[in-house]
């Protein structure tokens, strides 16, 4: 509506670079009956003005970029450029005549490129596009075209990243046929988009959310979440999981030929999302080219030409790593979802685990070459390099694969399964059913299974490595569930003790994962306590070990629980070997002292409160309950409660522990007696029936002040503070 003369006059002063005039021309040439032939040349003029800014934004330091302004993209959006391009792209969908308008691929590419560059540089554009559901779903239909696939995928990924409401995959027109039209390369890129649609929105800080907040949220959401519905949608696409398993396990040599890969790199280069990665890839390529030319200086001309036509191996590897990352993430989320058993069955059938085992040395845990890919401004060990992210993603997959599932034995090879059987026979105990029932045609092949390979790299890991946490978590999840003597003996614990005691590990996360793993390795296993005593063979070493435990009970409470449960079982056995270990083992002697158990109980109750309970520290509450359940079995519950009362008086603060414990147990009832709550984990890890847990909590919460086992009997009226309601404030 503004006259051309006015626009021209203001243009120089406002530094608009002629963008409003170009947009006006574009508008005129894109009316409903136009053939768009002129549009392309107009876009070709606009495009470089915006892409230079976007390039500056991506390659500049982000902080500097935020301070600077991006006038061209801003002007483009201000004069309605974004809405006009959306209209041009969607025009064919609005026309009902038989003869549909066909927009050329190049025009679509240019529109998408410009939209993406504007999204990068101008605040709010991405969010505005995300609010247009019709446009978001329309973008998916553009993915059927190979030529515009990468541009579309990158724009969708950006838009879904800021979208407030998760899209429903069911709404995408012809999703199943869309997915089946993708080649493996496109499917891997599509996984990047899927990641946003199947993950719960706030899983990032899952352990940090209070359980009160989570429970309140669950009451609101009665049905399955969008992410869960999307997971189910994916599983119903024929052949989807099989193709993901193939992608995850294919070798680098099986990837497609050089030409299509080069072509894709070309697209990547014009496509900014991966510009940084590409710079690094190019650097690697040049280094390899220089290397090969210096090696054969006589035929240097020849060497150079061959390098130009052949893609360097490291580039292929990097490319494959970036694909596998996305695929493993999607598989990992599906393994943790509601359809877990169905996914497990499919993953086993399509031999994901043996396939990953074959890639372990060459790709997943490969040795870094001198020119390992590093992004600008990062170093090789920072957590954002693809190499490192792949390792962590792989370890997370192993963790969710083996957690409380009998398919975990697929992580071993046949020989290792025979070793487990031999350990059971030697100890004269029956084999675990899951070992006997494991289908030998689906297990790992080769000299070692995946679990054994993991243990090997774990031993070589530097003390300060961030992988230690994930490695320990993966091994620990293999041991979770019903305790198996053979599994514990198969996995030695000396290395874990070395890390806790000799390297005096300082990282809280790593320590926690090592304590949890040590607890699973030693629980109810007298030989493991014997091994412990052999390693921790001086008072000095034992003191370091205790200091590590006491430095943070939130981190070590699962180990304290394991020692307490084991001690209780050993004391009830009349076996000479057990009696010998009981008298010799420093750890068991320490825990058998009543004062030590009381000290742990007092501190465990004191470090948590209903308002601060999270997924991470609720285990402290369950550990304190285990100590009291074992006391109840020996009819010593009143003695324990009286001692807690005396400890309160010593601290000159009567009632503060017992009132808190009363509230915590009321919360426990609310939380664990919920019909959706899975109590088998508590039963399996403690070998105490859930009924006994419930009864003990009821007895402790009894309102009868004359009952010797009720908490209220040990709080003086004056200090009673137990009826407060806990709401989510």
Automatic annotation (TrEMBL):
Q: Name one GO molecular function term.
A: phosphatase binding
SUPFAM superfamilies attached here? ARM repeat
- Pfam families registered for this protein in UniProt: DUF3689 (PF12463)
InterPro entries (UniProt xref): ARM-type_fold (IPR016024), TRPC4AP (IPR022162)
Which key words are in the record?
A: Receptor
Q: Name one GO biological process term.
A: ubiquitin-dependent protein catabolic process
Using the UniProt annotation, give all residue ranges assigned to the region (Disordered): 288-308
Q: What Gene Ontology cellular-component terms does the record carry? A: Cul4A-RING E3 ubiquitin ligase complex
Protein name in UniProt: Short transient receptor potential channel 4-associated protein
Q: Which organism is it from?
A: Tauraco erythrolophus
């Amino acid at each position: 509506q503004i006259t051309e003369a006015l626009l021209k006059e203001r243009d120089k002063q406002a530094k608009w670079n002629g963008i409003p005039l170009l947009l006006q021309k574009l508008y005129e040439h894109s009316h409903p009956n136009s053939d768009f032939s002129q549009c392309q040349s107009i876009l070709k003029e606009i495009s470089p003005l915006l892409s230079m800014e976007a390039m500056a934004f991506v390659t500049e330091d982000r902080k500097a970029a935020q301070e600077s302004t991006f006038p061209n993209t801003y002007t483009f959006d201000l004069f309605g450029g974004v809405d006009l391009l959306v209209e041009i792209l969607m025009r064919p969908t609005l026309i009902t005549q038989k003869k549909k308008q066909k927009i050329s691929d190049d025009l679509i590419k240019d529109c998408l490129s410009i939209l993406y560059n504007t999204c990068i540089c101008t605040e709010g554009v991405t969010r505005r596009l995300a609010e247009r559901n019709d446009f978001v779903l329309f973008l998916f239909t553009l993915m059927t075209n190979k030529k515009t696939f990468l541009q579309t995928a990158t724009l969708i990924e950006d838009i879904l990243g800021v979208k407030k409401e998760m899209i429903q995959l069911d709404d995408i027109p012809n999703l199943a046929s869309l997915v089946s039209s993708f080649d493996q390369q496109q499917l891997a890129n599509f996984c990047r988009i899927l990641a946003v649609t199947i993950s719960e929105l706030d899983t990032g800080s899952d352990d940090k959310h209070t359980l009160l907040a989570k429970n309140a949220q669950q009451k609101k959401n009665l049905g399955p979440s969008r992410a869960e519905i999307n997971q189910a949608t994916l599983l119903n696409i024929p052949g989807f999981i099989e193709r993901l398993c193939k992608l995850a396990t294919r070798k680098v040599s099986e990837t497609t030929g050089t030409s299509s890969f080069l072509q894709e790199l070309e697209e990547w280069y014009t496509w900014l999302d991966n510009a940084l990665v590409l710079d690094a890839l190019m650097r690697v390529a040049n280094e390899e080219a220089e290397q090969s030319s210096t090696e054969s200086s006589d035929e240097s001309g020849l060497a150079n030409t061959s390098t130009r036509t052949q893609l360097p191996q490291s580039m292929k590897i990097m490319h494959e790593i970036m694909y596998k990352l996305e695929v493993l993430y999607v598989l990992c989320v599906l393994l943790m979802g509601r359809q877990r058993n169905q996914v497990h069955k499919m993953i086993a059938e399509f031999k994901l685990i043996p396939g990953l085992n074959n890639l372990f040395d060459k790709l997943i845990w490969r040795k870094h070459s001198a020119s390992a890919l590093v992004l600008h401004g990062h170093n090789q060990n920072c957590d954002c390099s693809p190499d490192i992210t792949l390792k962590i993603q792989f370890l997370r997959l192993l963790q969710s694969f083996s957690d409380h599932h009998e398919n975990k034995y697929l992580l071993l090879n046949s020989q290792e399964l025979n070793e487990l059987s031999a350990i059971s026979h030697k100890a004269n105990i029956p084999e675990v059913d899951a070992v006997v029932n494991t289908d030998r045609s689906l297990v790992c092949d080769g000299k070692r299974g995946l679990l054994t390979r993991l243990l090997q790299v774990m031993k070589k890991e530097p003390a300060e490595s961030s992988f230690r946490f994930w490695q320990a978590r993966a091994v620990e999840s293999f041991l979770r569930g019903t305790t198996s003597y053979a599994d514990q003996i198969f996995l030695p614990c000396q290395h874990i003790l070395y890390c806790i005691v000799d390297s005096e590990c300082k990282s809280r996360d790593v320590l926690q994962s090592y304590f949890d793993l040590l607890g699973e390795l030693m629980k109810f296993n007298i030989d493991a306590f014997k091994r412990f005593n052999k390693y921790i063979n001086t008072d000095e070493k034992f003191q370091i070990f205790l200091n590590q435990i006491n430095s943070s009970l939130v981190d070590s409470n699962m180990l304290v629980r394991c020692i307490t449960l084991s001690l209780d079982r050993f004391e009830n056995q009349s076996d000479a070997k057990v009696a010998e270990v009981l008298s010799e083992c420093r750890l068991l002697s320490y825990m058998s002292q009543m004062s030590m158990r009381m000290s742990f109980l007092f501190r465990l109750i004191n470090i948590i409160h209903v308002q601060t309970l999270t997924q991470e520290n609720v285990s402290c509450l369950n550990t304190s309950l285990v100590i009291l359940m074992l006391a109840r079995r020996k009819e010593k519950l009143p003695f324990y409660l009286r001692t807690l009362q005396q400890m309160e008086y010593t601290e000159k603060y009567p009632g503060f522990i017992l009132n808190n414990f009363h509230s915590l147990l009321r919360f426990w009832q609310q939380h664990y007696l919920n019909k959706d709550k899975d109590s088998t984990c508590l039963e399996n890890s403690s070998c105490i029936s859930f009924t006994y847990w419930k009864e003990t909590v009821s007895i402790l919460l009894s309102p009868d002040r004359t009952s010797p086992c009720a908490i209220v009997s040990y709080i003086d009226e004056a200090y009673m503070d137990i009826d407060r309601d806990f709401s989510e404030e």
